[in-house]
UniProtKB/TrEMBL annotation:
Organism: Hypothenemus hampei
Protein purpose: Catalyzes the production of glutathione from gamma-glutamylcysteine and glycine in an ATP-dependent manner. Glutathione (gamma-glutamylcysteinylglycine, GSH) is the most abundant intracellular thiol in living aerobic cells and is required for numerous processes including the protection of cells against oxidative damage, amino acid transport, the detoxification of foreign compounds, the maintenance of protein sulfhydryl groups in a reduced state and acts as a cofactor for a number of enzymes. Participates in ophthalmate biosynthesis in hepatocytes.
Descriptive protein name: Glutathione synthetase
Binding site for Mg(2+): E239
Keyword terms of this UniProt record: ATP-binding, Glutathione biosynthesis, Ligase, Magnesium, Metal-binding, Nucleotide-binding
Subunit structure: Homodimer.
Cofactor(s) needed: Mg(2+)
Family indicated by similarity: Belongs to the eukaryotic GSH synthase family.
Residue intervals of the Glutathione synthase substrate-binding domain: 73-174
Manner of cofactor binding, per the entry note: Binds 1 Mg(2+) ion per subunit.
Length: 350
């Protein structure tokens, strides 16, 4: 998000698990171009940047498939029991086929893997007698998606296999809010980056992130939140939207949390205030014409990273996603029904 006070971009978070919407982003950009054309603004269409997020992400999966080196192996997509984001997921499958028609992808739940999966003598993951080269998780990031020990066992089986996981357990954990907070502590980033310029550039996008451990700094964090709750967002180790605490509720929640062991599972983050614009959100099933409203936007950057414990083989940016929501809404989740997909409009500020 662009932080209005300083006019610099600040990082809300990063996701390493089940990153979605690349499949439907491309369509939004086509739709917004169409609207501009229809309104006669042909000269403005060039200000909408190209977005090939879907091709970018799926080409990452294909590169992993190639690295595995078995042309008969499949890409396994781990899905929920009921998938609400089916269109987005399916577009990934269609794009995989379009890019390489010989690559097969299969969709399975963790429960399926528990029932049908095993490791062979080379620790390869076998499902329905076929070797799996890449496991792409579109599930297993919320507790209800791992309802019993069977699904945990399936997750462990996948992790122990030779298959390339998107993400591996290390990258899954790196995406947690706790790790994002720990990275902002003095001296930590320096353990992973050596170039001072890079370190400074990364630090610039951090906003204040604070832990709630049972120590002096944890107690200070609590005091800060109690004194000025509107300045912060309180976050648990959860994904999928709708779990954070905002505004005055931060104070109430902190009072309940402060003496409980659970407090260490939360982090406190400074609230970012993006600039306000006006626009319309168009929703399926909405009654009446869309209303002109005050909006804020947040930009997501998609990336592909492939590596092992020794070296990074691929690391590149592959596309973007813009989400816009009413300025009065706290969260911007599209599937959760708050935000809407949007297209950046580039302007020359000089
Ligand atoms: N520090 C902040 N300042 C302003 N808004 C925030 C902040 N942190 C989170 N938000 C809003 O809440 C939304 C959800 O927060 P966050 O991304 O941390 O949760 P999540 O459950 O991991 O979401 P997702 O499922 O999209 O990954 C963000 O997309 C943003 O709109
Ligand atoms: Mg997230």
């Amino acid at each position: 998000m662009l932080h209005s006070d300083a006019n610099i971009i600040k990082q809300v978070e990063y996701n390493t698990m089940s990153v979605s919407m690349a499949g439907v982003c491309n369509g939004i950009s086509i739709c917004n171009r169409f609207v501009l054309e229809e309104l006669g603004h042909h000269d403005k269409v060039e200000n909408l940047p190209e977005n090939n997020a879907l091709t970018g992400l799926t080409s990452g999966l294909l590169e992993a498939w190639k690295i595995y080196g078995d042309p008969t192996a499949v890409i396994l997509i781990i899905v929920e029991d009921i998938t609400y984001n089916i269109c987005d997921q399916r577009f990934h499958e269609f794009e995989l086929k379009r890019l390489n028609s010989r690559v097969k992808s299969v969709r399975k739940t963790l429960t399926d893997i528990y029932q049908q999966g095993c490791l062979n003598e080379h620790n390869e993951l076998i499902v329905d007698d076929i070797v799996v080269s890449v496991v792409y998780f579109r599930s297993a990031y919320t507790p209800d998606q791992i309802p019993s020990k069977n699904e945990w066992d399936a997750r462990l089986l996948i992790e122990r296999s030779q298959a390339i996981k998107c993400p591996s357990i290390q990258y899954h954990l790196a995406g947690t809010k706790k790790v994002q907070q720990a990275l902002t502590k003095p001296g930590i980033l320096e353990r992973f980056l050596s170039e001072p310029k890079k370190i400074a550039a990364v630090k610039e996008i951090f906003t204040g992130l604070y832990g709630l451990d049972f120590d002096e700094s944890g107690d200070q964090t609590i005091q800060m939140a109690l004194n000025d709750p509107e300045k912060f967002v309180l976050k648990p180790q959860r994904e999928g939207g709708g779990n954070n605490i905002y505004g005055q509720e931060v104070r109430e929640f902190m009072l309940k949390l402060k003496d409980s062991k659970e407090r260490t599972a939360w982090i406190l983050m400074e609230r970012i205030h993006p600039p306000i614009s006006t626009g319309y959100i168009i929703r399926a099933g909405a009654i009446g014409l869309p209303q002109l409203s005050e909006m804020v936007s947040e930009l997501g950057i998609f990336g592909v990273i492939i590596g092992d414990f020794q070296k990074i083989l691929v690391n590149r940016q592959v596309g973007h996603m813009l989400r816009t929501k009413k300025s009065t809404d706290n969260e911007g989740g599209v599937a959760a029904g708050f935000g809407a997909l949007d297209t950046p409009y580039l302007i020359d500020v000089n």
